[in-house]
Specification:
The protein is α/β, with parallel strands linked by helices. About 40% of the residues lie in helices and about 15% in strands. Helix 3 runs parallel beside helix 4 and helix 4 runs parallel beside helix 5. It is globular, with a radius of gyration of 17 Å.
Length: about 250
Amino acid sequence: MTSHSASPLSGRRAFILGGTGGIGLEIARSLGLRGASLDVHGRDAAKLEAAREGFRVLGVEADGSAFPLHSLEDARPLWARAARADIVVASWGPFLQKPLHETTAEEWETTAIFDLALPGALVSAALPGMRARRWGRFLLLGGTRTDGIRGFRTNAAYAAAKTVLGTLAKSIALGYARDGIAALVLCPGFVRTEYLSPEALENLADKTPAGRLTDPRVFGDLAADLVSRDPPLWNGAVVSADEGLEAW
């Protein structure tokens, strides 16, 4: 078993939305290895148990639950879990790839709820406890190239919701830095995860400056390293972590 007595996040509790696969799983792993205890939410019970078994092998304390989210009402059990957390990670949000003229009202609603309103509601639920404890960290996962206002041909609705997370993070920094609370939006590039088909992996790799996708473990380590920094000089920042994709 790994000892975390001298770890930077020892004694901290992290709640991870979407922590059973992809980028979220690697962020959870990296936070745990830095001493945080984990409370993980996912949509699939089998993936949750596999994740928890992996954490146990590493000597990381973890609990959690799995249930799908179809509406904001479904997420209400998560508010209390966020309220107990010192670190809140919002790493899940549905991706929508459609041009604007094909995007339906229902798709706009779903995208706005889960990519913006859900992270925002978790922030609001967590803030009172963080203020009382005088310490808190929010890590919000943005979208690729949503670190600034840009136009998008095929995923404008998704990108619009993710871009606004920057306003949320800067508002947290402005209003709560004196309470020891910090927020960061981290925008990945093309990351190699189990959700991508072999064809997608090849096509996306061709679009990157390095000719390959980002290793999800490297991305998870970067995220955890930033959250572990004290003082958080990055507070309110929107950080692009895409290996130069923007310059491609």
